[in-house]
Design brief:
The protein is α/β, with parallel strands linked by helices and 228 residues long. It has a single domain, classed as Phosphoglycerate mutase-like (Rossmann fold, 3-Layer(aba) Sandwich), CATH 3.40.50. Helix content is 32%, strand content 15%. The protein is built from eight helices and six strands, in the order βαααβααβααβαββ. It has a six-stranded mixed β-sheet with strand order 3-2-4-1-5-6, with helices on both faces. α2 crosses α4. The termini are far apart. 47% of the residues are buried. GO terms for molecular function: phosphatase activity. Pfam families: His_Phos_1. This is Phosphoglycerate mutase-like protein.
């Protein structure tokens, strides 16, 4: 099994979505704009011959904008993995942090009825995944716990190279341990690895360390934390 410090975790923020354009956070489960879809297509061209050839897993948040970014931006990777019997994994734990409608996902049943998301593994989307309560709450304690859960989950996976598509605030909690407000551009990809192997991590925090910036197709559009 690959050691944690040998892993390559490619964290990706979604492409431009409708709520980014006018800072309108009332749009429920905001989808990508036309520009966002173009950004995702550019991302695909930029990384189709590199990380899409090596990654062993593609994981995305369950919101529309992240799933669409994964489908378009990592189309080559998705096709290759599905040929190996590995569907795109949709993780509710990667959802965006705040309680605004734009950050609240749709139900599993609604997403299953949308042809764009056919073939994705939606099995982890339990009825409470978009409740913003309990484990999915938006308070700092819950967000830090969820970020740690995501890091531990990624560290425990057997794949060496993993591509993750998530959200600006979520990615800040995962990489910085808090909402640091450090910029994450739309369709930006960064490579991380783990600071130490699991057996050396007594606290179980599974911290990541930045290796390099891989790509960026959009601007540093604000997240809903600008109003939170």
């Amino acid at each position: 099994m690959t050691r944690a410090t040998e892993k390559r975790i490619f964290l990706t923020r979604h492409a431009q979505a409708e709520h980014n354009v006018e800072d309108d956070y009332s749009i429920h489960d905001a989808p990508l704009t036309a520009l966002g879809r173009e950004q995702a297509r550019k991302l695909h061209e930029d990384v189709k011959d590199t990380i899409q050839q090596t990654a062993g897993l593609l994981v995305t948040s369950g919101l529309r904008r992240t799933m669409s970014t994964a489908i378009i931006g990592y189309a080559t990777l998705r096709t290759r993995l599905e040929a190996e019997g590995k569907a795109v994994v949709v993780l509710p734990q990667l959802q965006e942090c705040n309680e605004f409608p734009c950050d609240r996902g749709s139900s599993k049943e609604v997403l299953e009825a949308d042809a764009e998301f056919a073939g994705l593994d939606l099995g982890n989307l339990t009825p409470d995944w978009n409740s913003k309560k309990g484990f999915y709450a938006s308070d700092s304690k819950a967000l830090k716990a969820r970020a740690q859960w995501n890091r531990q989950w990624l560290r425990a996976r057997p794949e060496r190279d993993i591509v993750v598509v998530a959200h600006g605030d979520c990615l800040r909690y995962i990489t910085d341990g808090e909402n640091s407000l450090k910029p994450w551009a739309n369709c930006e990809v960064r490579e991380y690895t783990f600071a130490v192997d699991a057996e050396e991590d007594e606290a179980g925090v599974a911290w990541l360390v930045l290796v390099q910036k891989v790509a960026q197709e959009g601007a540093d559009e604000p997240t809903s934390s600008a109003l939170a």
